[in-house]
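User: Predict the full complex structure for these chains.
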Amino acid sequence: MSLPATESPKSAESAVILTGDRPTGPLHLGHFVGSLRNRIDYQHTYKQFIMLADAQALTDNMDDTNKVHRNVVEVALDYLAVGIDPAKSTILIQSQIPELAELTFYYLNLVTVARLERNPTVKEEIRLRGFERDIPAGFLTYPASQAADITAFKAALVPVGEDQIPMIEQTNEIVRRFNRTAGRDVLVEAKALVPEIGRLPGIDGKAKMSKSLGNTINLGATADEIRAAVKQVYTDPLHLRVQDPGHLEGNVAFLYLDAFDQDKAGLAEMKAHYVRGGLGDSLVKARLEACLQDLLAPIRARREELAKDKSHVMQILKEGTAKAREVAAQTADEVKAALGLSYF
Amino acid sequence: MSLPATESPKSAESAVILTGDRPTGPLHLGHFVGSLRNRIDYQHTYKQFIMLADAQALTDNMDDTNKVHRNVVEVALDYLAVGIDPAKSTILIQSQIPELAELTFYYLNLVTVARLERNPTVKEEIRLRGFERDIPAGFLTYPASQAADITAFKAALVPVGEDQIPMIEQTNEIVRRFNRTAGRDVLVEAKALVPEIGRLPGIDGKAKMSKSLGNTINLGATADEIRAAVKQVYTDPLHLRVQDPGHLEGNVAFLYLDAFDQDKAGLAEMKAHYVRGGLGDSLVKARLEACLQDLLAPIRARREELAKDKSHVMQILKEGTAKAREVAAQTADEVKAALGLSYF
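Assistant: Here is the predicted structure of the two-chain assembly.
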């Protein structure tokens, strides 16, 4: 997406952006296209906080807390490998900032149960997870936690998918209600930043690339894994013989090439050839594989290098978290002061 | 209530007891009988934490946060005036211990929305406050917050009224579920300690002495206020003439004398006279007034003395809170470690 021309990279006044991931598994090409690639740009323009949302991940992973713990360092490795620069972006671990839980606690007083139950994102996720009446309270209330994360850093921008816009609206309702209660603007409203390129489909052509659907290509995939995945990429089921005309709609090989191939002219030529017939899937897939191998080889190499010294990665997370905590603690102090909860 | 003979006052092993108040108004005789008097005993036997639950008070006082702030020091003055000794009891301010919010945050994952909605205490309080569907989320979820308060200090005993027993049960459900998740006993189950003498009726004979019903005698009441209140005390509406037999049932003057008069023999004699007739209400009330003036005069004097140096009171709260925070932070660390949320 294009950035406003008025933002200067070095400006101390640059807007705060909050983004992050639930550390429940390795990141994949879907994350790369949907968020990571943008974050590499954002870090030059905005004051970017990237949150490893381990506490939020527990809301539906209390039965596998090890998975969450383990993936914190794995996701951090993915971040660093793709080019997120800890000197430019502040990477933080959510659970290590108690002030985020504190803010959540107070925001729970500013939202009704009925309002949370009406939240379309929460409703959909409750349906997807099959919770029905046995919704953990922490799951129903996670919009308050998300409001805490966003407001703790006074984020003005939050990159989200279209389906997450109601979460930002919920945050802003809490912000407005808090500021009204406080009688002054303590908290900042946030804007959803919806990227132009949305979701990458899975290799099987399913709408979404997702770990749970098993249709991903991970950022740390080996050359063999990439090769095997590309072989499985869904193309045009009607394109049975080389000489037949092929279709581009829903053709994952071409969708991926659109997302990753830098040689737009060459790609346009290949598409035309495919559509008029005479081009086999194997050549398209060969081009896609070359493209993905080129993209992922340096990421994998950096990831392997970084993984040799995980204590260094943890040190980066420790420093980022400490820096982020200062900001969040300042906000929590302001919030508590506005609620009359300052004494000493 | 009688204390178990096996507990030694000086034992480092003595059980932890957690008690406290929502600082929404001055404490009154109902608090004195229902809790304060017991706490003065408990502090010699147990490791007692007394919490000023300002954060919990906000769940239904977001429209008057000043009231909560103001009453923190007022309730602390009441504590010190009745004889709670900060060298023996740890007095703490809830909002100043972020670890309590942190524990609440994680416990929310261990209780379902349906379970919270079934909690009889919560149900009744929602009804009393007329919330209907517009229940603040913080109100529905406050059993998780109460579980945080109790478990943070590893309290084995929690003095509560009969109606609060479901809250302790809810805490213990969370404790068991957490320990099962952790695979070891990190948290401690608590026992409700229901005092033998329960609630003191209001001066108007209503079931409960309560600020909102305007039927209280405050601990800091002046001699004139006590005199005026005793005049209004509800007696026997059928006892119209001095020579008529009087009734003791529901007779607030005698209920108060039962609670406060140390001269049990003299009181028994007066009761007999009243029942057989020939004793006017004015004499009963004179005895009650003398009794209450004797009880409250030294409390009022100590309260006035302490109120001259509120910064000293705040220093006591600061030290108590710091001491309590160390304990709560230790528990929060254990809880987070058990959930795999330790990294550095």
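The longest helix of chain A spans residues 310-338.
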